[in-house]
Fold this sequence. Notes:
Elements: H1 3-21, E1 42-43, E2 71-81, E3 89-94, E4 100-106, E5 111-117, E6 125-128, E7 142-145, E8 169-172, E9 174-179, E10 186-192, H2 198-203, E11 207-213, H3 215-218, E12 228-236, E13 267-268, E14 271-274, E15 277-278, E16 281-285, E17 288-295, E18 302-306, E19 312-317, E20 320-328, E21 330-333, E22 338-344, E23 353-358, H4 364-367, E24 368-376, E25 402-412, E26 415-420, E27 430-434, E28 439-446, E29 450-454, E30 458-464, E31 479-482, E32 487-493, E33 499-505, H5 508-512, E34 516-521
Parallel strand pairs: 1-13, 2-5, 4-11, 7-8, 12-17, 16-24, 25-28, 27-34
Antiparallel strand pairs: 2-3, 5-9, 6-10, 10-11, 12-14, 14-15, 17-22, 18-21, 18-23, 19-20, 19-22, 23-24, 25-26, 28-32, 29-31, 29-33, 30-32, 33-34
The structure holds CU-O-CU linkage (C2O) and copper (II) ion (CU) (2 copies).
Amino acid sequence: MSAQDRRALTRRAFLGVAAGTGLAGAGWALGAALLPAEAAGETLTSAVRLPRPYTVPLPIPPVARPVEPGRYELTQRAARVEIIPGTTTEVWGFDGVFPGPTLELRRGSRTTVRVRNELPVPTSTHLHGGVTPDDSDGYPTDLVVAEGRTFQPSGGMHGHGHHDPAVWTFHSGAKDYVYPVEQRAATLWYHDHRMDFTAPQVWRGLAGFAIVRDDEEDALPLPKGERDIPLFICDRAFAEDGSFRYPSLDPTLLERPGVEDAYMEGVQGDVILVNGAPWPVLEVGTARYRLRLLNGSNARRYRLELTGGARFVQIGSDQGLLAEPVEHTALTIVPGERFDVVVDFSGFSPGTEITMVNTLGESPQTRAVMRFRVTSRVRDDSRVPPRLAELPPADRAAAVTVRTFDFRRTRHDSGDMWTINGEPYTPGRPIAEVRLGTTEVWRFTSDFHHPVHVHLAHFQVLGRGTRGPEATDAGLKDTVDVRPYEIVDVLVRFDGYRGRYMFHCHNLEHEDMAMMADFRIV
Ligand code: C2O
Ligand code: CU
Ligand code: CU
């Protein structure tokens, strides 16, 4: 089936459901032209009655409370939560919530997080964007298994080396993840990273924010407190009984990894959640707000825009403050990426509604994200200074070597797989060895949309093909949008720790279907 046929099918399915469930009356403007989707996956359709957009208030994830200074305990467990009003959904959440509790980290304050697993499946927890020693980095085969349960790794989806018993380690009940937090203020997040099953486990809810703060950033007059808001944007689909839909080959997530063939490119849902609520609304005053945008979706890319002439003033990227603010009318955000922006509502009078839309959406539902309703006139002392931080120069000449990594779909005996340099992931087999303290150019090439993420090391985008970086490439990053047939050069600095790390595509279905590799820092 061609991509075009598939899109037509998806559209028919959407219209069919809309007519059949009263969705048409739910406030969706149907009939708007479908964009030729820049789709990075296949969209599942919900069968539950969905709420009118912009009626559910935006929740803010709870802030994790330390059990003692520098120590947290999070329990991964199943819980029923009301996501779609009038129905409940079983989530697998840290402390039973989705998104999980926000970890408030302070630069220089070493923090230990004990993750207890009470789920029927093993887990591995990764702090995305963290400069973390490798034994706490959430390696895919370094697993926490609920107390009293046993887990026998199966051959995995490709039978490539997963059998090697040496790569598997098991912790019974819980594991302590140690985060030195020797890194600048930034919006990070944590999520499950289990071998072959990351995508379905994150889809069920195993993800949350981790915000690093520091004195340098605190000294700036940026919006703070209640006007500093994390926004976890993701898509999901719901079955008639309110449960999450996901096309797993084995819904127990114990034996056979992978998704139905039609979803090989990635799984998208038709409901957009922000902080776990469908198309929510936030009441704001006439002031500046700092919004920490995270794309926590498995596969969906968004191009976010604001209606009413509001702008995004970007102040930070994946790894914290930019050198200077950059104004955007549109932001493309790919899975795993963060943009830290300030939106100024002071020019709008109470009663004004500003909608954040996704102009890459393939349907009215997926073009809607959330709404801001200006309700009060308030005082605001915040501002965005013209200089934000000192960043190292992106000097290509500093690189000791150039390595090329090609992200591509490859035919193997066991079927199609997503690969790096033609090879499916084999845990424990590094494909690059780099020296601690050096800088390299990593060149990413691709056949499709691949959001490429590197653990531990941060990078700056040097250019895309013969062009320089785009406005949205600014700053220090850990995840970069690599588009079909594009060549993206990044300057990576390997600071932090020696050891075994990973880089991979952050389309989580691609990741599970082997688009990952180890590298070693020596
Ligand atoms: Cu957010 Cu290795 O991932
Ligand atoms: Cu990561
Ligand atoms: Cu990919």
